[in-house]
């Protein structure tokens, strides 16, 4: 048995039933074969065996009172996966699907994503199976306070810096930050994604969506193309999707879809951003169907009317596609349909949105494919810029942050593309991104000694 499959087999045994974590690890391991054939130092130093094992996984009880005065109990998680390149860094996700497997897959991806940014941040992730849907503002606040009442002892501006993810935005970061401050007496950059009045960075809200479009722009440029006149499909209707659509429009493309857990909108004339923002940024979680009140020509399809197991967004004809909702939202059938309809570029704003079979379809077809850990790294990159501003007690202008973001996304693309070429895998950004990130973390681990 080869070394890599031996490591993976042991990994599977220790992480039984953790499907998403196994999926994320396998994708990275599969990319490393060609590196290990050339380089012996990673095997000698057991980098792979160490990198797939979190430095620490914290799980905790979160008990809180709902509005009826009843005690509710949820489970909280924080995986501090790898601190080789800097303090642990990664978001918090509040969603009923959150489990150890989901948090470990996200934390594992975060190590490589953060390494690709070139900034000094390690990899982490956290969250809870708490479902923010239908909760009052007071319930959200009590939950966040209860969550931080345990988390505060594990984090700090130079230790571990959480941020948002699905279900955690500016409001939640505010309640979490307030509680951290009360418990520790410290006013420090312990969280990112903060509001502007109390230490947030301009352009952090836009960063993941804008970054994913900048990444796509770099892929296009390499093939002497741009966005002008291109039709885009986008999934999701959160922060990432909204600012993906905004940047696409600014650069001359027409984004025609968005979606949430209940259905999707197809607006042939292009999504009207003001209407979408009004629906989704008010915090009332309105249905996308209400979009039709202002844009009656658009079409809404409810999830219950979707063809079995399919996200209908991917059946809309397009030139470019931006999966910006959640993991495994795009399967092999979807990938084939996208190709059949003429799609030539995928840039992943979400974490691991394409299944492994879908990724194979894209790579086999040789279309431009930007994997999440490279394409959506703009969010965490600007989080690190927020940390830098907090540490220096300064704040930078929108353009200053946005220009740095553009530069970071161009660098990530260059690293992934040139590493792919170095290993005779031209245009395979999965292999390029995985090897480039693994080498950085692996080399630093060797230099820092066994731990
Ligand atoms: N949750 C985002 C991600 O998946 C951002 C993390 C951060 O800003 O720390 O990268």
Strand-helix topology:
Elements lengths: L2 H12 L4 H20 L2 H4 L2 H5 L4 E10 L5 E12 L5 E7 L5 H17 L6 E6 L8 H15 L8 E4 L6 H15 L19 H19 L8 E4 L4 H12 L3 E2 L1 E4 L2 E4 L6 H8 L10 H4 L4 E4 L17 E3 L9 H9 L4 E3 L8 H10 L2 E3 L1 H4 L2 H15 L5 H25 L6 H20 L3
Parallel strand pairs: 3-4, 3-5, 6-7, 6-11, 11-12, 12-13
Antiparallel strand pairs: 1-2, 2-4, 8-9, 9-10
The structure holds glutamic acid.
Glutamic acid (GLU) binds next to strand 3 and helix 15.
General description of the model:
The chain has 451 residues and is an alpha/beta fold. 47% of the residues lie in helices and 15% in strands. It has helices at residues 3-14, 19-38, 41-44, 47-51, 100-116, 137-151, 170-184, 204-222, 239-250, 273-280, 291-294, 332-340, 356-365, 372-375, 378-392, 398-422, 429-448; strands at residues 56-65, 71-82, 88-94, 123-128, 160-163, 231-234, 254-255, 257-260, 263-266, 299-302, 320-322, 345-347, 368-370. A 5-stranded mixed beta sheet has the order 1-2-4-3-5. The protein has a 5-stranded parallel beta sheet with strand order 7-6-11-12-13, sandwiched between helices. Strands 8-9-10 form a 3-stranded antiparallel beta sheet, with no helix packed on it. It is globular. Bound molecules: glutamic acid (GLU). Glutamic acid (GLU) binds next to strand 3 and helix 15.
